[in-house]
């Protein structure tokens, strides 16, 4: 694609505020704008023209040289010019100024002369000796409210400059001098209309086909008339800003997508209630996950203290001195103390380190679960971020409840002090039982004596009983008296009673002594068993339970830490989701502003007010119908695609689906492009119907009303030649334009040029050329002293041209 700015380099020099506004309004044209501030500090892309400086024009000429040098670069020229075009570049310098602005009128003529001579001197190899050419074309606005005398003097200076430099190849302007007033013979124009008219006329001059046309349209820029003459113009345009319409359509589609993304979600949905519990584990679940895989007793390995058995034949001295003496006590106490030291110094530290490792793993797993769940929820559907927000709010409520329970348990711990050892107490009870244990020898001696006494008593009882039965009144206590006679007398005669008493006494005494010894033996054994069980219970229940309670408290602290960390992570994620929703709301507001800005550009050409002479094809009533045709049938599918594409490159925490610029670019890709479609083509779409209606209305309204804005003197007005009426349209609009001309009977009044490369606009130009200074009503404002001022303000002859 050929760049017209390189093939036909055009430099717009906007002087003052009016020149700046025109330069900004004509940004779409194929030209390079240079803004000139009068008496002020120049901007980075402009220059300052100080009337009080010794050489006020050199900074402007230098900036113009730099801008034109960039356009004449060999890479740009060869890369963008036509291979079959042997001609050099035609450089146009368009100077736009408002003669009504303070200090501008006396500067225009010297500035034009300085630009013509300075640029030709700087690029003499191209513009003088070579195939190129340079034209300086001033386009000057003459407002009704300006100083008429000053504007007249400026026009006189330009006429004198044109006449003085007509024969100079270096200093001559070569271009027409346009004077345009904000009035015509039929209407008045506002400043905004003038800015748009100048911008539209500049756009017309920059059309490559217009500038290369062999039928004389090039003379709108080049002056082929007598020197010292002026020209004027009036311009109207009907444009289709496809970029603005695409901007509106993309903004509307973007707002529809954002509306789907911001759609409300029912907080009572069942799936939301089921998604929160897995994110926040309960206290019992966390305690189970943080607990050791094996029982604590197996991990601590408590010792076993062997308690000696009590044998039947053990005497108390043997038991108290050898089995349960001080050595046993010292050995048991040492074993228990060594176990406590081992657990306190080493094993509890290892268990705490393992608990910390499991806690950290649980922390990371909880964070990962929240991140994964939220990312999956956000990417699941357009309203995923809203669903994730509801899920996390439910999870936050659960986490706060669990955390309060854990905090209450921590504030009331079950950490009783280490219970004392029962060894001393149980040993004292065992010693008491052992001390009452009978001695075997003592039992033998005492048993024999007791048996003898018992035998004597029993024998006396037997004999006395025999006497009492056979002798009614025996001498009962007379042991030496004779026994009564009878058959049983031999059994009661000594030593038979004594033997019988001894037998009974031996059995009875032996049994009673055995029973007594057995009772004391069982007492000692029970005391021994109680000692063994107490020691084992003290080690496995008291000590191990004490450490179990300490580990449980440590686990509670980790449960609190995990829940607090999860709560903080949930709060952070909720804040990110709320920021995402805020970003979506901000993006919706930005798209709303984007839509309004597009409508302003579409309906008023980018200015703040609508224009009468510069209309738009698409009106406010046409946008809805056009958008309805290009809008995707299923915006939800577009929203899902946008969500997938935005999350494919960046995480949801950056809210990529709320990125305004990326969403607009996505919507542009989703919608039908207007860039390669001319609205003037035949068709039945809403855009083609709007273009046909707007074009016919525009042409009918302005065919006879558009007139150039420059007042002529009465004696010259009747003799002035008819103005040149040109209509520039794309080839696609030729049929529509011919039909409109035929309907109004204007076939011969307008010269239709269907050669515009811009498929989106129709331009109407009414130009009047060859106007001498004395034919202008403006020139009547000059007085007798103007000649002296003109000679003073006229620029000196360029070097080499005196």
Main features:
6-stranded parallel β-sheet; alpha/beta; 26 helices; disordered C terminus; 802 residues; 5-stranded mixed β-sheet
Quick recap of the structure?
The chain has 802 residues and is an alpha/beta fold. The chain has helices at 4-7, 16-25, 58-71, 74-80, 105-122, 124-127, 148-164, 191-205, 208-211, 242-261, 270-275, 283-290, 296-300, 316-323, 326-380, 384-411, 423-435, 440-470, 496-604, 620-630, 635-649, 660-670, 686-702, 714-717, 734-744, 786-793, and strands spanning 10-15, 32-38, 46-49, 90-98, 133-142, 178-181, 229-239, 614-616, 724-728, 751-753, 761-772. α25 links the parallel β9 (724-728) and β10 (751-753).
How would you describe what is shown here?
The protein is of the alpha/beta class. It is 56% helix and 9% strand. It has 26 helices and eleven strands. The protein has helices spanning 4-7, 16-25, 58-71, 74-80, 105-122, 124-127, 148-164, 191-205, 208-211, 242-261, 270-275, 283-290, 296-300, 316-323, 326-380, 384-411, 423-435, 440-470, 496-604, 620-630, 635-649, 660-670, 686-702, 714-717, 734-744, 786-793; strands at residues 10-15, 32-38, 46-49, 90-98, 133-142, 178-181, 229-239, 614-616, 724-728, 751-753, 761-772. The chain is rod-shaped. The two termini are 45 Å apart.
Distance between the termini: 45 Å
Q: Tell me, what's the shape?
A: rod-shaped
Major sheet: arrangement of strands: 3-2-1-4-5-6
- Helical run tally: 26
Largest sheet properties: 6 strands, parallel
The overall pLDDT average reads 82
Residue runs with pLDDT of under 50 for 5 or more positions: 1-6, 783-802
Helix content: 55-70%
The secondary-structure class comes to alpha/beta
Cα radius of gyration in angstroms: 59 Å
Strand content: 5-15%
Q: Strand tally, please?
A: 11
């Amino acid at each position: 694609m050929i760049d017209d700015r390189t093939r036909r380099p055009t430099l717009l020099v906007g002087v003052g505020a009016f020149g700046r506004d025109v330069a900004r309004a004509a940004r779409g044209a194929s030209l390079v704008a240079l803004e000139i501030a009068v008496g002020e500090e120049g901007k980075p892309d402009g220059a300052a023209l100080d009337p009080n400086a010794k050489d006020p024009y050199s900074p402007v000429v230098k900036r113009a040289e730099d801008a034109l040098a960039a356009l004449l670069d060999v890479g740009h020229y060869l890369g963008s010019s036509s291979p079959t075009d042997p001609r050099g570049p035609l450089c146009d310098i368009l100077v736009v100024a408002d003669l009504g602005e303070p200090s501008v009128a006396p500067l225009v003529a010297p500035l034009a002369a300085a630009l013509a001579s300075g640029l030709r001197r700087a690029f003499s190899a191209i513009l003088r000796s070579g195939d190129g050419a340079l034209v300086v074309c001033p386009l000057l606005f003459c407002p009704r409210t300006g100083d008429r005398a000053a504007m007249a003097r400026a026009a006189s200076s330009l006429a004198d400059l044109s006449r003085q430099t007509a024969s100079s190849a270096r200093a001559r302007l070569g271009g027409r001098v346009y004077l345009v007033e904000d009035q015509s013979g039929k209407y008045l124009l506002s400043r905004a209309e003038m800015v748009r008219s100048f911008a539209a006329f500049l756009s017309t001059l920059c059309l490559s086909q217009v500038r290369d046309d062999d039928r004389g349209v090039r003379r709108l820029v080049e002056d082929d008339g007598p020197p010292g003459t002026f020209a004027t113009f009036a311009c109207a345009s009907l444009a289709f800003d496809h970029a603005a319409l695409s901007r509106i359509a993309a903004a509307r589609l973007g707002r529809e997508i954002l509306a789907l993304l911001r759609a409300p979600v029912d907080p009572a949905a069942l799936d939301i209630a089921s998604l929160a519990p897995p994110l926040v584990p309960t206290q019992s679940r966390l305690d189970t996950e943080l607990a050791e895989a094996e029982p604590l007793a197996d991990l601590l390995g408590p010792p076993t203290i062997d308690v000696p058995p009590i044998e039947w034949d053990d005497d108390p001295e043997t038991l108290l001195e050898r089995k349960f003496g001080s050595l046993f006590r010292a050995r048991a106490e040492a074993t228990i103390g060594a176990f406590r030291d081992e657990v306190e110094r080493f094993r509890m530290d290892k268990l705490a380190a393992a608990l910390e490792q499991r806690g950290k793993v649980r922390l990371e797993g909880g964070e990962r679960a929240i991140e994964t769940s939220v990312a999956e929820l956000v990417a699941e559907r357009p309203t995923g971020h809203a669903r994730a927000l509801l899920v996390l709010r439910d999870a936050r409520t659960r986490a706060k409840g669990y955390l309060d329970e854990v905090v209450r348990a921590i504030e009331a711990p079950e950490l009783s002090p280490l219970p004392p050892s029962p060894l001393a107490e149980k040993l004292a009870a065992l010693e008491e039982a052992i001390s009452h244990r009978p001695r075997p020898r003592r039992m033998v001696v005492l048993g024999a004596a007791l048996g003898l006494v018992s035998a004597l008593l029993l024998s006396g009882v037997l004999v006395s009983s025999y006497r009492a039965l056979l002798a009614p009144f025996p001498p009962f206590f007379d042991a030496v008296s004779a026994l009564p006679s009878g058959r049983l007398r031999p059994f009661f005669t000594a030593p038979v009673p004594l033997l019988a008493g001894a037998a009974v006494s031996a059995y009875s005494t032996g049994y009673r002594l055995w029973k007594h010894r057995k009772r004391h033996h069982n007492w000692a054994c029970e005391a021994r068993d109680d000692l063994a069980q107490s020691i084992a219970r003290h080690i496995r229940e008291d000590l191990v339970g004490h450490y179990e309670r300490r580990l449980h408290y440590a686990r509670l602290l980790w449960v609190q830490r995990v829940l607090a960390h999860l709560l903080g992570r949930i709060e952070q994620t909720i804040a990110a989701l709320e920021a995402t929703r805020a970003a979506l709301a901000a993006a919706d507001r930005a798209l709303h502003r984007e839509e309004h800005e597009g409508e302003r550009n579409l309906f008023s050409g980018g200015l703040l007010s609508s224009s009468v002479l510069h209309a738009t094809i698409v009106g406010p009533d046409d946008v809805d119908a056009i958008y309805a045709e290009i809008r995707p049938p299923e915006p939800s599918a577009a929203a899902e695609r946008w969500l997938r594409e935005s999350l494919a490159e960046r995480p949801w925490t950056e809210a990529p689906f709320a990125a305004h610029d990326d969403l607009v670019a996505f919507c542009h890709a989703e919608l039908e492009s207007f860039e390669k479609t001319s609205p003037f083509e035949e068709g039945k779409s809403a855009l083609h119907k709007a273009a046909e209606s707007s074009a016919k209305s525009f042409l009918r309204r302005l065919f006879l009303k558009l007139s150039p804005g420059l007042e002529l003197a009465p004696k010259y007005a009747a003799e002035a030649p008819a103005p040149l009426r040109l209509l520039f349209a794309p080839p696609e609009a030729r049929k529509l334009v011919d039909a409109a001309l035929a309907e109004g009977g204007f076939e011969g009044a307008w010269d239709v040029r269907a050669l515009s490369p811009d498929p989106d606009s129709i331009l109407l130009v009414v130009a009047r050329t060859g106007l001498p200074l004395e034919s202008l009503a403006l020139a009547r404002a000059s007085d007798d002293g103007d000649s002296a001022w003109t000679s003073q303000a006229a620029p000196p002859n360029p070097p080499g041209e005196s």
